[in-house]
Amino acid sequence: MGTNVFDSTNQxxxxxxxxxxxxxxxxxxxxxxxxxxxxxxxxxxxxxGIHLDIRPGEYVSIAGPSGCGKTTLxxxxxxxxxxxxxxxxxxxxxxxxxxxxxxxxIRNREIGFIFQSFNLIGDLSVFENxxxxxxxxxxxxxxxxSFVTGALERVGMAHxxxxxxxxxxxxxxxxxxxxxxxxxxxxxxxADEPTGNLDSRNGEAVMQLLKELHQNGATICMVTxxxxxxxxADRTVHLFDGRVVEDRIAA
Amino acid sequence: xxxxRFALRQLRKSPGFTFLALLTLAVGIGMNTAIFSxxxxxxxxxxxFSEPERVVRIYGESKERxxxxxxxxxxxxxxxxxxxxVFSSIAADWGNGFIMTGSGEPIQLLGGNVTANYFELLGIHxxxxxxxxxxxxxxxxxxxxTENFWRKxxxxxxxxxxxxxxxNGVPTTIIGVLPNLPISWFGRDSEIFVNKPFEPSGITKDRxxxxxxxMRVTARLKPGVSVSQAQAAxxxxxxxxxxxxxxxxxxxxxxxxxSAAEDVTGDLRPAFLTLLAAVSAxxxxxxxxVANLLLVRFTGRKREIALRMALGAERRGIVRLFVFxxxxxxxxxxxxxxxxxxxxxxxxxxxxxQNIPLESGVKLQLPVLIFTLGLSLITGLLMGLYPAWQxxxxxxxxxxxxxxxxxxxxxxxxxxxxxxxxxxxxxxxVLLAGAGMLVxxxxxxxxxxxxxxxxxxxxxxxxxxxxxxxxxxxxxxxAERLQTELQTAPGVEAAAIADAVPLSGNxxxxxxxxxxxxPVPVNxxxxxxxxxxxxxxxxxxxxxxxxxxxxxxxxxVDSRLVVILSNSTAKKLFPNENPIGHQILFGTDNGNGLPAxxxxxxxxxxxxxxxxxxxxxxxxxxxxxxxxxxxxxxRSATKPEATAGIVRAALNKIDNGLPILQPSTLDAIxxxxxxxxxxxxTLLGVFAxxxxxxxxxxxxxxxxxxVEQRTGEIGVRMALGAQTHDVLNLVVRQGMNPxxxxxxxxxxxxxxxxxxxxxxxxxxxxxxxxxxxxTAIVLAVAALLACLIPARxxxxxxxxxxxxxx
Lengths: 251, 806
Fold this sequence. Notes:
The structure holds two protein chains of two kinds. By secondary structure, chain A is α/β, with parallel strands linked by helices. Chain A has eight helices and ten strands. Chain A has one domain: Rossmann fold. In chain A, the strands form two sheets. In chain A, strands 6-7-8-3-9-10 form a six-stranded mixed β-sheet, with helices on both faces. A four-stranded antiparallel β-sheet of chain A has the order 2-1-4-5. In chain A, a hairpin with a 2-residue loop joins strand 4 (85-90) and strand 5 (93-94). In chain A, helix 4 (126-137) packs across helix 5 and helix 4 packs parallel to helix 6. The longest helix of chain A is centred in the last third of the chain and has 16 residues, at 200-215. The two termini of chain A are 24 Å apart. The relative contact order of chain A is 0.19. Chain B is α+β, with helices and mostly antiparallel strands. Chain B folds into three domains: 2-41 and 270-446 and 675-805, no CATH class; 52-267, no CATH class; 465-657, no CATH class. In chain B, helix 15 (411-447) crosses helix 24 and helix 23 (724-758) packs antiparallel against helix 24. The longest helix of chain B has 38 residues, at 315-352. Chain A binds chain B through residues 75, 78, 80-81, 100-101, 104-105, 107-109, 113, 115, 117, 119, 121-122, 132-133, 136-137, 180, and chain B through 712-713, 716-724, 726, 799-800, 803, 806.
């Protein structure tokens, strides 16, 4: 994880090239990141002066009560959103104010998303769902096949490759979603309440899967409000009212 | 009643849907109603005769000589009348013009000469007075007028009967007032009917009895006798005619019967079949659009459905409720469509010109109302049933849980939507291709070189009353004087006289044969289009003289008979020979026709139809072949009204009692001759345009709806790194898939219906690859644009919002 896996492609921009060629220091560094939502008359400060470093191989959980800014923070980390102020460097390069296309390219290559509601595409098979981000990368079909098969094997879902999501249980769907996040060998996995839509047994299984991935070197940043699952991480960052109120490394 | 109130409330709640659905369906139903109304008027209503299905026309034909719809001669009519056993009565008529004098300005009136039993045969009874009496066929000058004439010219005077009016210089007594007559049978503006059907002026008794054919024969079948039974009796009748009248020119033409209805509409059937098919396709497309909207609308009401079912409603009841709603929409749209149809029908006669016998004035007839209502109900059922049935398959638990949020629908619904789009595109391709072909054909037809120059030529008719102009000599002198007056009038470049103007629909034909060798008997000779023209006719119309000379004032009634040939005629009759100096036999005089010497050859003229070259056309000098009616053609630099004034002034110097009939320009006559083609092309073009618009709206609606339903998925794809072009690709590809399928079906369909159109096309193949390719491209581009708008919107999806909504 986190190594440059795209040297063979020539479609990436200068910025994403340079990001991918730098493997030292914090993988992610947020400095005084602020996010303000402007509505008609009200300014809502979702994040206020967030400082956060995530190093390669770390398993960080972001916890906090509802409305504390967890999801906003994850959106900024995932380059789905941009901060109102502050800086965000990924692999030592500033990414806060990149263009839409550059952000999409970095998301595709460096970030793997795992969503609470799995967000598998119903009309695509398990294989096609996992293949999707690789398709956007312009990867050759043979290479895609090998990446997808590898990812499905890692989550134990290779045997269901031809099934549609609707033919799988919730737990299986989330495993497929994890495989999709893994398939492109991103620098970091961002998981947004990955157990939120699962029963406790399936939830536990997914957490176990993430743990195994982490043990194999994956960098994971997970948002959860469930204290039990937060404890799976090495480090827990507590947010309250858009601020980091505690940053604790597990004993 | 509750259902009605609820349905109305639902429609009020979504004005956007209601407006779009009503507009779409109103256009579809309105166009169908308009065409049905025209079909009802032309084909279904039937002629306003008593038992019109028993009325037939009897024509003659000679397949080997390519003669069709030949009228009857006087001896033939008499023979039929006296010898037949299958008709309860048989009558004849011929069109005629009359000059009415004695009440201010002389007026030219149209009408005809009829046998005494003519109106009785048709079952038309006078609203005032009486019908003609049999003895009035040969003596007594009596006239029947129409209601229009009576109201307009006699201010509905109840004492009109017995009044004398002067027609063609002869005092004539009004004996009856006829109800207004259908123009499809009697022609436009027919007001006057006189007796004496067997005494056409300008034709000698000898020629009459040699078989000059000018009478339209109408018969009423005996009760229980079918058209085919009557047809079977005709050959024996012809045989006995041939035996008793071996000298007549028309004794070899086989008689054939045509029902009255077919006689007046036969030529129009293909065009109206095409239009009917086109409007049906428009309605299907409109239905597809609204069915799509309904599917979205009903699917979005899952919670309502679940709630109703939770409260005990049966699925049947839900389906009924939704179908009721869709039917309500279609019935309201039908009412709007009816208004649209009335307007359309009022415009059509103007588009059609003189070529389609449509009654003027918009009338709402009961069958049209029933048709619209029936069509609206069927439309409502058709488009509402599947969406209602699909939507009623709600999962109670899910439906209630979702809180009424719209869902994307099942795979079946997706397939249904894609199928609708493909169907719409397919139908639109057929319509667009058809319209393209007709437009293309019309353009070629409009550009067809007619062989004469129509610009700046004025034309008008003049009737010569037989009382004052009884013979060729007087008619010849009149024409010569008029032409002299006109040629010296200021502004006039050239002027001439002719019995008929090209493309006006009037023409006459004579039996002909080369005089040398052994000409076949008169009754086996070909009939050739023959025009009587004055010197200067060719110059006035810009027809080129290819060899020989034009007529001169020396070609008089009593001088050597001469003829000028069209180029095609010269080539046909005198291949590899110089025709000048040769002789051609014309007519039936002396039992063998009279020889006329060829003095010139002129360029070919498309005088009958722009779409068809005449293989034979003869020109005879007016004095040698005159009629009691002539046309004046004047080429001048002045405006048509001014030219009419010049002609009027010239005419006044000779005879101020002669009105000018139907003054026009040759340009207008040429344009008018394409009236039916223009009507079909315009209507089909409008229908195709509407179809294209509806299809594009349908594609847009389907794609926009898909995008809306797939916002979450698009958000996921963007989160996974999809670029703008990836999203555009995704939406456009999925939107265009059914379009491409529709294009393939549509092109196949176009091939299938090509045969229907082929007969209506001029110099263009219904399988023209360029045209079909262009049609497919136009539709594909329109569809692509329809996909691009929602696709562009899809690229603006905010992945955070999209994922949150998931």
